[in-house]
Design goal:
By secondary structure, the protein is mainly beta. The chain has seven helices and 28 strands. The chain folds into two domains: 5-342, Jelly Rolls (Sandwich), CATH 2.60.120.200; 383-491, Lipocalin (Beta Barrel), CATH 2.40.128. Strands 3, 5, 6, 8, 15, 16, 17 and 19 form an eight-stranded mixed β-sheet that branches. An eight-stranded antiparallel β-sheet has the order 4-7-18-9-10-11-14-20. An eight-stranded antiparallel barrel has the order 21-22-23-24-25-26-27-28.
C-alpha cells in the first residue's frame, strides 16, 4: 500500500458541468475555458474564506514534478467523467465539498498503472509546502468529513481515503484511513515496531516502489484498527474523523487518538514516526498529509465526498465549531484500549535478522546495494491450504465448504499442486484463478462459476492475520439472494 510522494497526482477532466469560478469564488453558469488549470490552483481554486480545505500552506491536486502534468492532461482528455468536481448540493458544512471519482480505468502515471503485479489508481491531494509544514517529532491535529457518494457495492475491497505519509519517498506511510468493503472504516498503522532494514532494495517493501527499484526499509509490523462498521458506512451519511497524533520515533513518547462523530474511539501509545536511517537526510524525515482516493481496485467505480479537511498544530484551529464539536469536551473523553482488527509481524528470510538497534546511525551517507530478487514476505518452499466456503447472508446453517486445495508459491505467485473437494467449484475453474502476494495481501482473481450464480469476474484480497490470510466477497445468486464467499489460506 505504499505511496510515493512523486505519485500523489490527479488531474480532472475537461468538463465540469455548471460549476465554474470567477475571482476565486464559485459561480453557476457558463463553463470556464480552462478548468484544468483552475483546479490545479491551491485548494482547487476555492476562495480563501471557504473552509472545505483548511490547511496551512494549502493543498493541491497535482504535485510539482517534471512531466506529470502532461501525463494527467492526456488521461483527463480520454475520460468521460470528471475526476474531481466541486459539490454544492451535498455538503457537511457551508456551500461546497469536494467530490472525487475514479472509474474503471486506471488513473495514474507509469508507476501507478503499469506495476508488475496490479495497477493502482488515485485521485489524491497532497500538501503544497509539506517541507515547511511537516516536522519530525511533531504534535499534530487533523479532521475531515467524508461520505460514500455512489453505491458502496460498486467499490473495490480496499480504498485509502487519507494517508499520513513521509516526505522521504523511500519511507512507507505512518498511518492510513481505509475503507474495507464489508468490514468498515479502518485505521492502518505501520510504525509500531519500526522498520526491518535490509541490505538491498526490494520492490515489495512498502516504499520506493518501481520508481526507485524498491526500498531497503521494510515495515516490521502491520496493525489495523476498526473505527466504524460497514453497516454504518453503507448508510451513505457524513462521517466526521478527528486525529491527534504525536509523531515520535520513541515508543514511549508517541501516541495517536481518533474520534469518530465526536466520540473517542482510539487512544494508543507507541512509535508513530520513522527513525532517520543511514542514507536519509534528517531534515527530510517529516510527515506529510494526503487525502482523496487511492486504491489498487481498478475496474470499480468509487465516488467520495470530502469536506472540512483541516490540519493544524492545535485542536482550536481545526474549526470544529463548524461541525458542532468542542475541543475541551473532546479532550475530556476517555476510552478503553481497543484490540487491533489485524496485528501481525512481517516474516523475512533468515538472512534478514538484524533490527533497528543494530544500525549505526552516525553514517548518514551510507549507501545500500540493490537486489530486486527477494520478497518482503517469502511464501516459497512452503505449502498452504486454501479453503473456500459459501453461505447465505444471515443463514449460518447454509455454510458449506465448496473447495479445499493445496497451494505453493514461487516468487509470491501461487499455484495449486494438489486438488481436494470440487463438488461445487470445479477443478477447471480453480486452475484458472490467479494467486498473487504483494504488499502483504494475497489477491485472487478470475471468473467465478458455480451453479445457481451468474458467471462473474472475481477479485478477493486476503489480509494477513497471524499465520492466516483471509478475506470474503459478497455475491448474489440468480434469485437475488446475497451470499458470502469466504477464503482462508494457512500454512501446513
Amino acid at each position: 500500500m505504499k505511496t510515493l510522494l512523486t505519485l500523489l497526482l490527479l488531474i480532472p477532466s475537461l468538463s465540469f458541468g455548471a460549476v465554474t469560478f470567477k475571482n476565486g469564488k464559485i459561480q453557476d453558469g457558463e463553463i470556464l475555458g480552462k478548468p484544468l488549470e483552475v483546479f490545479l490552483k491551491e485548494n482547487a481554486g476555492l476562495d480563501k474564506s471557504d473552509t472545505t480545505i483548511n490547511i496551512i500552506g494549502g493543498a493541491e491536486l497535482l504535485g510539482k514534478y517534471d512531466g506529470t502534468y502532461d501525463v494527467y492532461k492526456k488521461i483527463s482528455e480520454s475520460l468521460d467523467y470528471n475526476i474531481l468536481e466541486i459539490e454544492k448540493n451535498d455538503t457537511r458544512f457551508g456551500e461546497t465539498a469536494l467530490r472525487f471519482k475514479l472509474g474503471k480505468e486506471c488513473v495514474g502515471i507509469v508507476q501507478d498503472c503499469e506495476r508488475s503485479t496490479r495497477p493502482y489508481s488515485r485521485a489524491e491531494f497532497n500538501l503544497i509546502r509539506a517541507d515547511d509544514f511537516g516536522r519530525n517529532r511533531d504534535n499534530i491535529w487533523a479532521s475531515f468529513s467524508f461520505k460514500i457518494f455512489n453505491d458502496p457495492n460498486e467499490w473495490s475491497d480496499y480504498v485509502n481515503i487519507q494517508q499520513w505519509q513521509n516526505v522521504v519517498g523511500d519511507y512507507s506511510p505512518m498511518f492510513r484511513t481505509v475503507i474495507i468493503k464489508d468490514v468498515g472504516l479502518i485505521l492502518a498503522n505501520e510504525t509500531s515496531k519500526g522498520y526491518k532494514v535490509i541490505d538491498y532494495k526490494d520492490k515489495r517493501c512498502l516504499g520506493g516502489g518501481s520508481k526507485y527499484g524498491g526500498s531497503s526499509f521494510c515495515v516490521a509490523n502491520f496493525k489495523e484498527y476498526k473505527l466504524l462498521d460497514w453497516n454504518e458506512l453503507i448508510k451513505r451519511k457524513w462521517v466526521d474523523v478527528i486525529y491527534n497524533i504525536k509523531f515520535h520515533d520513541d515508543p514511549n513518547q508517541g501516541y495517536f487518538k481518533v474520534w469518530i462523530n465526536g466520540e473517542l474511539i482510539l487512544d494508543e501509545k507507541g512509535q508513530t514516526m520513522w527513525k532517520t536511517y543511514p542514507g536519509v537526510r534528517k531534515e527530510t524525515n517529516k510527515w506529510t498529509y494526503n487525502f482523496g482516493i487511492y486504491t489498487s481496485g481498478v475496474g470499480f467505480i468509487h465516488e467520495l465526498l470530502l469536506d472540512e479537511v483541516s490540519v493544524s498544530r492545535s485542536c482550536d484551529k481545526l474549526k470544529l465549531e463548524n461541525l458542532n464539536y468542542d475541543c475541551q469536551k473532546l479532550l475530556s473523553q476517555t476510552t478503553q484500549k481497543k484490540e487491533p482488527y489485524t496485528d501481525y509481524d512481517v516474516n523475512y528470510t533468515d538472512d534478514d535478522d538484524y533490527t533497528d538497534d543494530d544500525i549505526d546511525y552516525t553514517d548518514e551517507n551510507n549507501e545500500t546495494n540493490s537486489n530486486d530478487d527477494e520478497d518482503i514476505i517469502n511464501l516459497d518452499q512452503n505449502n498452504y491450504e486454501i479453503e473456500w466456503t459459501l453461505e447465505e447472508v444471515g443463514n449460518l446453517d447454509s455454510k458449506k465448504i465448496i473447495a479445499k486445495d493445496i497451494l505453493t508459491f514461487d516468487s509470491n505467485i501461487g499455484s495449486i499442486i494438489e486438488f481436494g473437494d470440487d463438488e461445487y467449484l470445479s477443478k477447471n475453474i480453480r486452475t484458472k484463478f490467479n494467486y498473487v502476494l504483494v504488499d502483504r495481501i494475497i489477491s485472487i482473481s478470475g471468473n467465478f462459476e458455480i451453479e445457481g450464480f451468474d458467471n462473474k469476474e472475481l477479485l478477493i484480497q486476503l489480509l494477513k492475520s497471524g499465520e492466516i490470510f483471509k478475506g470474503e466477497k459478497r455475491l448474489n445468486d440468480k434469485k437475488g439472494q446475497a451470499h458470502k464467499v469466504k477464503i482462508k489460506i494457512k500454512k501446513i
